[in-house]
């Protein structure tokens, strides 16, 4: 069975995910819709895990997957091999986004604790005492307002998107490899079957013509015998 339809569905799904990842990453630069100085923005945001990792690196294979849904895609070895390579790239981007987002959630945001100095108040927390499980500690960050909640929501969205994209791209890698190995073989079997059907039909036609010729010759012989008598 051709895997083109599966590739097309995955490609269509990846586009909105990549768009959401890019938007979420951009929003991290403007906590609570505020414009901050570059030195006041959480450092992990500059890894561009949503814009580059879950965004651009996933959009590229998504375009290729949509093309893989066209006619004859199953037997196009070069096309399916390129789809596999780009899907590995998308898988890497998804994993990269998930890893950076996890670190962002664990480490917490850069914020002003009240003395005008921006620092990371939660990065020395143990896993048991992590701020994620203790909402009362969120008040440590005075500026930007609601920065902790802002970071948690956006990094969580990016984490989920990265995981989903990685899974979808991995599925496409398996699907593409299957089509790369088996696609041309299936096409050859299909062509061979068509040739056999054509042979059977042609043979049947010639047999019918042969039987008609024998019957026609027999009728002429009978007519000649009748005339002679």
Task: Provide structural commentary.
- It is a single chain.
- With 229 residues, the chain is mostly helical.
- It has 4 helices and 2 strands.
- Strands 1-2 form a two-stranded antiparallel ribbon.
- It starts with a helix and ends with a helix.
- The model is unreliable at 71-75, 184-188 and 213-217 (pLDDT under 50).
Give the helix/strand layout.
Elements: H1 4-27, H2 49-68, H3 77-107, E1 111-112, E2 118-119, H4 147-228
Antiparallel strand pairs: 1-2
Identify the strand order in the major beta sheet.
Answer: 1-2
Distance between the termini: 69 Å
Taken from the alpha-carbon principal axes, the silhouette is elongated
Average per-residue pLDDT, rounded, comes to 81
Give the DSSP E fraction (strand runs of 2 or more residues): under 5%
* Helix content percent band: 55-70%
| Tally of DSSP β-strands | 2
Structural category is mainly alpha
CA radius of gyration: 33 Å
| Major sheet | 2 strands, antiparallel
Give the key terms.
single chain, 229 residues
Quick structural summary:
This protein has helices at residues 4-27, 49-68, 77-107, 147-228; strands at residues 111-112, 118-119. With 229 residues, it is an all-alpha fold.
């Amino acid at each position: 069975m051709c895997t083109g339809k599966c590739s097309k569905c995955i490609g269509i799904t990846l586009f909105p995910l990549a768009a959401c990842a890019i938007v979420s990453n951009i929003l991290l630069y403007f906590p609570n819709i505020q414009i901050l100085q570059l030195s006041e923005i959480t450092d992990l945001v500059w890894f561009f895990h949503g814009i580059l990792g879950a965004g651009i690196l996933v959009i590229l294979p998504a375009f290729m997957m949509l093309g893989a849904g066209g006619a004859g895609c199953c037997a196009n070895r070069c096309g399916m091999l390129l789809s596999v390579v780009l899907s590995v790239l998308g898988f890497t981007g998804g994993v990269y986004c998930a890893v950076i987002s996890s670190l962002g959630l664990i480490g917490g945001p850069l914020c002003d604790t009240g003395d005008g100095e921006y620092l990371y108040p939660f990065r020395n927390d143990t896993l048991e005492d992590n701020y994620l499980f203790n909402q009362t500690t969120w008040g440590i960050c005075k500026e930007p307002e609601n920065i902790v909640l802002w970071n948690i929501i956006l990094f969580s969205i990016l984490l989920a998107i990265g995981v989903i994209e990685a899974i979808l791209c991995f599925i496409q890698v398996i699907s593409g490899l299957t089509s790369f190995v088996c696609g041309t073989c299936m096409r050859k079997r299909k062509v061979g079957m068509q040739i056999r059907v054509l042979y059977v039909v042609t043979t049947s036609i010639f047999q019918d013509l042969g039987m008609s010729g024998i019957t026609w010759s027999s009728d002429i012989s009978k007519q000649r015998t009748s005339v002679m008598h």
